């Protein structure tokens, strides 16, 4: 757990699991999260619930957000990230990103539009690498998502997960 300077309280970080869902054309699925103070595009995934491991968390989140059933074993954990930002009862989140190659599919979330909005989800869609690179007025999480994905596609998974920063 990350700690603040002496005399202050501990930072409470939630664990999140995310997937880089890529089809054979290297398109990636991104979710637009909308909160009162900010809006950004991120990979699908979410917080670990009690009793879940990374596979169970990602299976649940991919089903809810994309309608995708996780039938293959998880690919490698390629990125990690910690960000401190108020999230209700949490002060932030540590995340592990897994590479998941899948055939192209139609995104059909299991959650209703109202349930998705309640979780801050505004939109879910496929992005081409070219669309990512051209999106200069878009906030991504992690912020360097287009260049990080370009590097991953060029070099393959790193031997150890790469800390991708905020």
Write the CATH homologous superfamily: Nucleoside Triphosphate Pyrophosphohydrolase
User: What is the overall number of helices?
Assistant: 4
Under CATH, the topology can be stated as Nucleoside Triphosphate Pyrophosphohydrolase
**Roughly what fraction of the amino acids lie in strands?**
35-45%
Fraction of residues in helix: 10-25%
First and last CA, distance: 17 Å
- Stretches where pLDDT falls below 50 for ≥5 residues? 1-5
What structural class results from the helix and strand content?
A: alpha/beta
Number of domains: 1
Which architecture name does CATH use?
Alpha-Beta Complex
Q: Work out the number of β strands.
A: 9
By oligomeric state, this entry counts as single chain
CATH class: Alpha Beta
- State mean pLDDT (0 to 100 scale): 90
Overall morphology: globular
Task: Name the helix and strand elements from N-terminus to C-terminus, one letter apiece.
Answer: EEEEHEEHEHEHE
What kind of sheet is the major sheet? 5 strands, mixed
* Strand order across the largest sheet: 4-1-6-5-9
Radius of gyration: 16 Å
Which helices and strands appear, and what pairs or packs with what?
Layout: E1 13-22, E2 28-35, E3 38-42, E4 45-47, H1 54-66, E5 77-87, E6 90-101, H2 113-118, E7 121-127, H3 129-134, E8 140-141, H4 145-155, E9 162-163
Parallel strand pairs: 1-6, 3-8, 5-9
Antiparallel strand pairs: 1-4, 2-3, 2-7, 5-6
